[in-house]
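User: Before I run my own analysis I want an independent prediction to cross-check against. Here's the chain; please return only the structure tokens and, at the end, one sentence I can use as a sanity check.
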Amino acid sequence: FYALDEAEKLGILNRIEAEKKKGKVSVTRFKGLGEMNPLQLRETTIAPDTRRLVQLTIDTGDETRAMLDMLLAKKRASDRKKWLESKGDLAEV
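Assistant: Structure tokens:
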């Protein structure tokens, strides 16, 4: 099973418990596609019948576009490094 968010994860875990499925449940999170094995990559990203697309909408005038550019652009690695060094400890894990 794959969950999009915490609420969906809890729903899946509750369903597994209600159906009394045997075996141990293991929850794993992926930071990026490079961490997945080929089967997981196919199920979540490549296969049209099992992948899920989420549309991202960015409002005009907010700082989201600039932030995404800094985080994702290949040419902005030095900006990303500076940002991580200054803000990395603010993450709530």
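Sanity check: The mean pLDDT is 89.
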